[in-house]
Amino acid sequence: MKQNNYFYTSSSAKDIITLVNPKYTDIYKYKKCKRKLKYIGNTNKKFTHGKIYQSSNFNGTTYIIKFKKKEKVIGYTFFERLS
């Protein structure tokens, strides 16, 4: 079911937060973050369940992981943090 309400999109939430308090403009900005992460999601074309990956950046909700010379963005809930 498609959600048409503006308040249910994450980008809208970011806009509202920064509108209320501009000091949070960079709240979801990626920061360098090298961590070993064990993938606990379902195996798919990009990630294998149980395999360990290395993150390069994190913004509080998603990691950037180098995968086959490309960067992939994926939510932190798919990983168990090892370091």
Explained architecture:
The protein has 83 residues and is mainly beta. Helices cover 13% and strands 34% of the residues. It contains one helix and six strands. β4 and β5 form a beta hairpin. The longest helix has 11 residues.
Notable characteristics:
mainly beta; 83 residues; 1 helix; elongated; six-stranded antiparallel beta sheet
Helix content: 10-25%
Q: Specify the biggest β-sheet.
A: 6 strands, antiparallel
Number of helices: 1
Coarse shape: elongated
Give the ordered list of helices and strands.
HEEEEEE
Number of strands: 6
* Distance separating the two termini: 38 Å
Overall structural class, as computed from helix and strand content, comes to: mainly beta
Instruction: Indicate the radius of gyration in whole angstroms.
Output: 15 Å
Beta-strand residue fraction: 25-35%
Pick out the low-confidence regions. Answer: none
Mean of all residue-level pLDDT scores: 86
SSE layout and pairing:
Layout lengths: L9 H11 L10 E2 L3 E4 L12 E7 L3 E6 L2 E6 L3 E3 L2
Antiparallel strand pairs: 1-3, 2-3, 2-6, 3-4, 4-5
What's a quick, concise take on this entry?
By secondary structure, this protein is mainly β.
